[in-house]
């Protein structure tokens, strides 16, 4: 069965601000099909100046705190980049892509449905590593 790809209407380059970018990432994340036990927080990391664009880097950190363990043993990060072209018209939507911690695969919101399993796998591998150490 093919998963439905949920996306949002991304802001245009001329209306972009760092704060609005973070709000849009939060809005996009709200479309993800993750269990309510997952909590997250997001932060702006840096601005990167390139020849033909500007990139804005963000991190969204996920965990599953419980009553017994309010401080989770491990977290999983998803890194977002919002790119604003210096070549395309300012009224063009920003480009958005994200990667998962420990992965180089680049995901685009309009092409890849998010899978909760990705977060679980990152946390499980960290816990296994900590137990071995």
Automatic annotation (TrEMBL):
Return any one Pfam family short name.
AKAP28
> Molecular function (GO) terms listed?
protein kinase A regulatory subunit binding
Q: Which domain of life is it from?
A: Eukaryota
> Which InterPro entries does the record match to this protein?
AKAP, AKAP_28
Which is one Gene Ontology cellular component term of this protein?
cAMP-dependent protein kinase complex
Which PANTHER family does the UniProt entry name for this protein? A-KINASE ANCHOR PROTEIN 14 (PTHR35075)
- Name this protein carries in UniProt: AKA14 protein
